Amino acid sequence: MELTCRPLTLHLRDTFTIARSSVDTEEVLVVEVDDGGVRGRGEGAPVAYWGESVTGMADAVAADGRALLGGDLRDVEGIARRLRAWDGPQGAKMALDGAVHDWVGRRYGRPVWRLLGLDGVLPPTSFTIGIASVEETVARVQRAPGFAVYKVKVGGPADLERLEAIRSVTGAPLRIDGNEGWTFDQARELLPRLRELGVEMVEQPFPAGDLDSFARYRELPDRLPVFVDEGCKDLASVPAVAGYADGIVVKLAKCGGIREAQRMLAAAAALDLRVMLGCMIESQLGIAQAAQLGPLADLVDLDAHLLVSDQPFTGLGLDAGRVVLPDAPGLGLEPAGGAA
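== Dipeptide epimerase ==
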Protein backbone atom coordinates (compact mmCIF):
# COMPACT_ATOMS: atom_id res chain seq x y z
CA MET A 1 0.00 0.00 0.00
CA GLU A 2 1.26 3.47 -0.93
CA LEU A 3 0.20 6.50 1.13
CA THR A 4 1.05 10.06 0.09
CA CYS A 5 -0.20 13.54 0.90
CA ARG A 6 0.25 17.04 -0.47
CA PRO A 7 -0.95 20.53 0.41
CA LEU A 8 -3.28 22.40 -1.92
CA THR A 9 -3.86 26.16 -1.91
CA LEU A 10 -7.36 27.41 -2.74
CA HIS A 11 -7.94 31.03 -3.79
CA LEU A 12 -11.20 32.73 -2.79
CA ARG A 13 -13.10 34.58 -5.50
CA ASP A 14 -13.78 37.35 -2.97
CA THR A 15 -12.15 38.10 0.37
CA PHE A 16 -14.08 35.90 2.79
CA THR A 17 -14.86 37.70 6.04
CA ILE A 18 -16.62 36.32 9.09
CA ALA A 19 -16.98 37.77 12.59
CA ARG A 20 -13.48 36.74 13.69
CA SER A 21 -11.29 36.78 10.55
CA SER A 22 -10.78 37.47 6.83
CA VAL A 23 -9.00 35.25 4.30
CA ASP A 24 -8.12 35.33 0.60
CA THR A 25 -6.63 31.83 0.44
CA GLU A 26 -7.00 28.57 2.35
CA GLU A 27 -4.84 25.46 2.38
CA VAL A 28 -6.20 21.91 2.46
CA LEU A 29 -4.44 18.54 2.53
CA VAL A 30 -5.00 15.90 -0.15
CA VAL A 31 -4.26 12.30 0.86
CA GLU A 32 -3.90 9.52 -1.69
CA VAL A 33 -3.85 5.80 -0.97
CA ASP A 34 -2.96 3.28 -3.64
CA ASP A 35 -3.47 -0.43 -3.07
CA GLY A 36 -3.96 -3.25 -5.55
CA GLY A 37 -3.90 -0.85 -8.48
CA VAL A 38 -6.81 1.19 -7.06
CA ARG A 39 -6.29 4.77 -5.93
CA GLY A 40 -8.45 6.60 -3.41
CA ARG A 41 -8.29 10.30 -2.63
CA GLY A 42 -9.46 12.31 0.34
CA GLU A 43 -9.18 15.92 1.44
CA GLY A 44 -8.97 17.48 4.87
CA ALA A 45 -9.31 21.11 5.95
CA PRO A 46 -7.64 22.47 9.09
CA VAL A 47 -9.72 24.12 11.81
CA ALA A 48 -7.57 27.20 12.37
CA TYR A 49 -9.23 28.29 15.62
CA TRP A 50 -8.22 24.92 17.09
CA GLY A 51 -4.62 25.56 16.10
CA GLU A 52 -4.62 23.08 13.22
CA SER A 53 -2.51 23.65 10.10
CA VAL A 54 -1.93 21.77 6.87
CA THR A 55 1.72 21.32 7.82
CA GLY A 56 0.75 19.72 11.11
CA MET A 57 -1.80 17.52 9.37
CA ALA A 58 0.75 16.34 6.80
CA ASP A 59 3.28 15.54 9.53
CA ALA A 60 0.65 13.56 11.44
CA VAL A 61 -0.33 11.55 8.35
CA ALA A 62 3.31 10.81 7.57
CA ALA A 63 3.94 9.63 11.13
CA ASP A 64 0.81 7.57 11.82
CA GLY A 65 -1.19 7.19 8.61
CA ARG A 66 -0.06 3.68 7.68
CA ALA A 67 -0.71 2.29 11.15
CA LEU A 68 -4.16 3.89 11.22
CA LEU A 69 -5.12 2.39 7.88
CA GLY A 70 -3.84 -1.06 8.84
CA GLY A 71 -3.46 -3.90 6.38
CA ASP A 72 -6.92 -3.98 4.82
CA LEU A 73 -8.61 -0.85 3.45
CA ARG A 74 -11.89 -2.73 3.26
CA ASP A 75 -12.06 -2.67 7.07
CA VAL A 76 -13.72 0.73 7.07
CA GLU A 77 -15.20 0.41 10.57
CA GLY A 78 -11.91 -0.74 12.06
CA ILE A 79 -10.14 2.21 10.47
CA ALA A 80 -12.85 4.54 11.77
CA ARG A 81 -12.35 3.24 15.33
CA ARG A 82 -8.61 3.82 15.10
CA LEU A 83 -9.14 7.33 13.75
CA ARG A 84 -11.53 8.17 16.61
CA ALA A 85 -8.99 7.00 19.18
CA TRP A 86 -6.10 8.86 17.50
CA ASP A 87 -5.09 12.21 19.00
CA GLY A 88 -4.08 13.61 15.61
CA PRO A 89 -5.63 16.64 13.86
CA GLN A 90 -9.28 16.29 12.91
CA GLY A 91 -8.53 17.54 9.40
CA ALA A 92 -6.04 14.69 8.94
CA LYS A 93 -8.72 12.22 10.05
CA MET A 94 -11.09 13.69 7.47
CA ALA A 95 -8.54 13.25 4.69
CA LEU A 96 -7.69 9.66 5.61
CA ASP A 97 -11.35 8.73 6.04
CA GLY A 98 -12.20 10.27 2.68
CA ALA A 99 -9.40 8.42 0.89
CA VAL A 100 -10.53 5.11 2.38
CA HIS A 101 -14.16 5.61 1.35
CA ASP A 102 -13.08 6.64 -2.14
CA TRP A 103 -10.82 3.58 -2.42
CA VAL A 104 -13.53 1.16 -1.27
CA GLY A 105 -16.09 2.63 -3.68
CA ARG A 106 -13.64 2.40 -6.58
CA ARG A 107 -12.58 -1.10 -5.57
CA TYR A 108 -16.16 -2.34 -5.77
CA GLY A 109 -17.34 -0.06 -8.57
CA ARG A 110 -20.03 1.74 -6.55
CA PRO A 111 -20.56 5.36 -5.44
CA VAL A 112 -20.02 5.87 -1.72
CA TRP A 113 -23.58 7.12 -1.30
CA ARG A 114 -24.89 3.83 -2.69
CA LEU A 115 -22.64 1.84 -0.35
CA LEU A 116 -24.19 3.87 2.50
CA GLY A 117 -27.67 2.87 1.33
CA LEU A 118 -28.71 6.39 0.28
CA ASP A 119 -30.42 7.78 -2.81
CA GLY A 120 -27.85 10.48 -3.58
CA VAL A 121 -30.36 13.35 -3.66
CA LEU A 122 -29.49 16.33 -1.45
CA PRO A 123 -31.61 19.22 -0.16
CA PRO A 124 -30.77 22.55 -1.83
CA THR A 125 -27.53 24.07 -0.61
CA SER A 126 -27.34 27.57 0.75
CA PHE A 127 -24.91 30.00 -0.89
CA THR A 128 -22.74 31.86 1.61
CA ILE A 129 -22.32 35.64 1.62
CA GLY A 130 -19.43 36.82 3.77
CA ILE A 131 -19.34 40.08 5.70
CA ALA A 132 -18.85 43.03 3.35
CA SER A 133 -20.24 46.50 2.68
CA VAL A 134 -23.94 46.77 1.92
CA GLU A 135 -23.21 47.44 -1.75
CA GLU A 136 -20.80 44.52 -2.09
CA THR A 137 -23.19 42.22 -0.24
CA VAL A 138 -25.90 42.95 -2.80
CA ALA A 139 -23.45 42.51 -5.67
CA ARG A 140 -22.42 39.07 -4.39
CA VAL A 141 -26.03 37.93 -4.19
CA GLN A 142 -26.66 39.19 -7.71
CA ARG A 143 -23.56 37.35 -8.97
CA ALA A 144 -24.97 34.09 -7.60
CA PRO A 145 -28.57 33.89 -8.80
CA GLY A 146 -30.73 30.79 -8.72
CA PHE A 147 -30.03 29.53 -5.22
CA ALA A 148 -32.97 28.43 -3.10
CA VAL A 149 -31.48 29.96 0.07
CA TYR A 150 -28.63 32.30 1.03
CA LYS A 151 -26.57 32.10 4.20
CA VAL A 152 -25.34 35.48 5.36
CA LYS A 153 -22.39 35.94 7.69
CA VAL A 154 -23.17 38.47 10.41
CA GLY A 155 -21.38 39.88 13.43
CA GLY A 156 -19.92 42.91 11.67
CA PRO A 157 -21.17 46.45 11.12
CA ALA A 158 -24.52 47.07 9.44
CA ASP A 159 -25.88 43.52 9.82
CA LEU A 160 -29.49 44.62 9.55
CA GLU A 161 -28.86 46.97 6.64
CA ARG A 162 -27.13 44.19 4.71
CA LEU A 163 -30.01 41.77 5.28
CA GLU A 164 -32.54 44.42 4.22
CA ALA A 165 -30.53 45.10 1.07
CA ILE A 166 -30.42 41.40 0.23
CA ARG A 167 -34.15 41.14 0.70
CA SER A 168 -34.61 43.97 -1.81
CA VAL A 169 -33.06 41.84 -4.58
CA THR A 170 -34.22 38.30 -3.73
CA GLY A 171 -37.20 36.62 -2.15
CA ALA A 172 -35.20 33.49 -1.25
CA PRO A 173 -35.15 32.41 2.40
CA LEU A 174 -32.18 33.61 4.41
CA ARG A 175 -30.05 31.94 7.05
CA ILE A 176 -27.58 33.85 9.17
CA ASP A 177 -24.32 32.76 10.78
CA GLY A 178 -22.89 34.76 13.68
CA ASN A 179 -19.67 32.75 14.13
CA GLU A 180 -19.91 33.57 17.86
CA GLY A 181 -20.04 37.31 17.09
CA TRP A 182 -23.27 38.41 18.80
CA THR A 183 -24.31 39.15 22.35
CA PHE A 184 -27.69 38.15 23.74
CA ASP A 185 -28.83 41.78 23.73
CA GLN A 186 -27.98 42.14 20.03
CA ALA A 187 -29.91 38.98 19.17
CA ARG A 188 -32.95 40.02 21.19
CA GLU A 189 -33.01 43.47 19.59
CA LEU A 190 -32.70 42.15 16.04
CA LEU A 191 -35.08 39.21 16.35
CA PRO A 192 -38.39 40.88 15.36
CA ARG A 193 -36.90 42.40 12.22
CA LEU A 194 -35.09 39.17 11.32
CA ARG A 195 -38.39 37.35 11.32
CA GLU A 196 -39.95 40.04 9.12
CA LEU A 197 -37.09 39.65 6.65
CA GLY A 198 -37.69 35.92 6.27
CA VAL A 199 -34.65 34.66 8.16
CA GLU A 200 -35.32 30.99 8.92
CA MET A 201 -32.50 30.09 11.32
CA VAL A 202 -29.46 31.43 13.18
CA GLU A 203 -26.16 29.57 13.28
CA GLN A 204 -23.87 29.97 16.31
CA PRO A 205 -24.90 33.49 17.37
CA PHE A 206 -23.01 33.40 20.69
CA PRO A 207 -19.59 32.12 21.81
CA ALA A 208 -19.62 28.36 22.30
CA GLY A 209 -18.97 28.69 26.02
CA ASP A 210 -21.66 31.32 26.63
CA LEU A 211 -24.39 28.85 27.54
CA ASP A 212 -26.17 31.52 29.59
CA SER A 213 -26.92 33.51 26.42
CA PHE A 214 -28.18 30.38 24.67
CA ALA A 215 -30.45 29.63 27.64
CA ARG A 216 -31.82 33.18 27.77
CA TYR A 217 -32.38 33.21 24.02
CA ARG A 218 -34.28 29.92 24.26
CA GLU A 219 -36.83 31.62 26.53
CA LEU A 220 -37.65 34.39 24.04
CA PRO A 221 -41.09 34.23 22.40
CA ASP A 222 -41.07 33.65 18.63
CA ARG A 223 -37.35 33.02 18.57
CA LEU A 224 -35.65 31.71 15.44
CA PRO A 225 -34.17 28.20 15.57
CA VAL A 226 -30.53 28.09 16.61
CA PHE A 227 -28.00 25.64 15.16
CA VAL A 228 -24.68 25.08 16.96
CA ASP A 229 -21.45 24.94 14.94
CA GLU A 230 -18.40 25.95 16.95
CA GLY A 231 -19.94 24.32 20.02
CA CYS A 232 -20.40 20.93 18.33
CA LYS A 233 -17.35 18.90 17.36
CA ASP A 234 -18.10 15.18 17.29
CA LEU A 235 -20.52 12.56 18.60
CA ALA A 236 -19.58 13.17 22.23
CA SER A 237 -20.65 16.82 22.01
CA VAL A 238 -24.10 16.21 20.50
CA PRO A 239 -26.19 15.30 23.60
CA ALA A 240 -25.37 18.52 25.46
CA VAL A 241 -26.52 20.66 22.51
CA ALA A 242 -30.03 19.20 22.78
CA GLY A 243 -30.39 21.07 26.07
CA TYR A 244 -29.91 24.56 24.65
CA ALA A 245 -30.32 24.60 20.84
CA ASP A 246 -32.50 23.31 18.03
CA GLY A 247 -29.92 21.78 15.74
CA ILE A 248 -26.28 21.01 15.06
CA VAL A 249 -23.92 21.77 12.21
CA VAL A 250 -21.92 18.71 11.17
CA LYS A 251 -18.59 19.37 9.44
CA LEU A 252 -16.25 16.58 8.45
CA ALA A 253 -13.22 18.75 9.16
CA LYS A 254 -14.32 18.98 12.79
CA CYS A 255 -15.65 15.49 13.43
CA GLY A 256 -13.03 13.60 11.41
CA GLY A 257 -14.83 12.16 8.43
CA ILE A 258 -17.82 10.41 6.94
CA ARG A 259 -18.11 7.64 9.54
CA GLU A 260 -18.13 9.97 12.55
CA ALA A 261 -20.52 12.36 10.80
CA GLN A 262 -22.92 9.47 10.19
CA ARG A 263 -22.88 8.68 13.92
CA MET A 264 -23.61 12.33 14.72
CA LEU A 265 -26.56 12.35 12.33
CA ALA A 266 -28.01 9.26 14.00
CA ALA A 267 -27.60 10.76 17.48
CA ALA A 268 -29.20 14.03 16.41
CA ALA A 269 -32.23 12.17 15.05
CA ALA A 270 -32.62 10.31 18.35
CA LEU A 271 -32.45 13.61 20.27
CA ASP A 272 -34.87 15.48 17.97
CA LEU A 273 -32.12 17.81 16.82
CA ARG A 274 -32.12 19.01 13.25
CA VAL A 275 -28.89 18.80 11.26
CA MET A 276 -27.24 21.15 8.82
CA LEU A 277 -24.38 19.55 6.88
CA GLY A 278 -21.68 22.17 6.49
CA CYS A 279 -18.09 22.62 5.35
CA MET A 280 -14.91 24.64 5.68
CA ILE A 281 -13.23 26.22 2.63
CA GLU A 282 -12.69 23.08 0.55
CA SER A 283 -12.37 21.98 -3.06
CA GLN A 284 -14.90 19.76 -4.79
CA LEU A 285 -13.12 16.75 -3.29
CA GLY A 286 -13.75 17.80 0.30
CA ILE A 287 -17.31 18.86 -0.48
CA ALA A 288 -17.99 15.51 -2.15
CA GLN A 289 -17.02 13.69 1.05
CA ALA A 290 -19.67 15.53 3.07
CA ALA A 291 -22.21 15.42 0.26
CA GLN A 292 -22.32 11.61 0.41
CA LEU A 293 -24.35 12.08 3.61
CA GLY A 294 -26.44 14.95 2.24
CA PRO A 295 -29.63 12.86 1.87
CA LEU A 296 -29.66 12.38 5.66
CA ALA A 297 -29.46 16.09 6.52
CA ASP A 298 -32.30 18.55 7.09
CA LEU A 299 -30.31 21.47 5.69
CA VAL A 300 -27.23 21.61 3.48
CA ASP A 301 -24.52 24.27 3.38
CA LEU A 302 -22.03 22.75 0.94
CA ASP A 303 -20.97 25.61 -1.27
CA ALA A 304 -17.29 26.24 -0.51
CA HIS A 305 -16.19 24.91 -3.91
CA LEU A 306 -18.32 27.65 -5.45
CA LEU A 307 -16.50 30.33 -3.45
CA VAL A 308 -13.03 29.47 -4.78
CA SER A 309 -11.57 30.09 -8.22
CA ASP A 310 -9.50 26.89 -8.18
CA GLN A 311 -11.02 23.63 -9.42
CA PRO A 312 -8.30 21.00 -8.82
CA PHE A 313 -10.97 18.27 -8.87
CA THR A 314 -14.14 17.96 -10.90
CA GLY A 315 -17.23 15.80 -10.91
CA LEU A 316 -19.81 17.53 -8.71
CA GLY A 317 -22.78 19.07 -10.45
CA LEU A 318 -25.11 21.91 -9.51
CA ASP A 319 -28.73 21.97 -10.57
CA ALA A 320 -31.31 24.50 -9.35
CA GLY A 321 -29.24 25.17 -6.26
CA ARG A 322 -28.65 21.49 -5.42
CA VAL A 323 -25.27 19.80 -5.32
CA VAL A 324 -25.49 16.82 -7.66
CA LEU A 325 -23.43 13.75 -6.81
CA PRO A 326 -21.92 11.81 -9.69
CA ASP A 327 -23.06 8.24 -10.26
CA ALA A 328 -19.46 7.08 -10.45
CA PRO A 329 -17.39 4.79 -8.22
CA GLY A 330 -16.08 6.11 -4.93
CA LEU A 331 -16.50 9.82 -4.36
CA GLY A 332 -16.81 10.23 -8.13
CA LEU A 333 -14.24 13.03 -8.36
CA GLU A 334 -11.26 13.20 -10.71
CA PRO A 335 -8.28 15.56 -10.91
CA ALA A 336 -8.93 18.47 -13.25
CA GLY A 337 -7.40 18.02 -16.68
CA GLY A 338 -7.15 14.26 -16.23
CA ALA A 339 -3.98 14.49 -14.13
CA ALA A 340 -3.06 11.31 -12.24
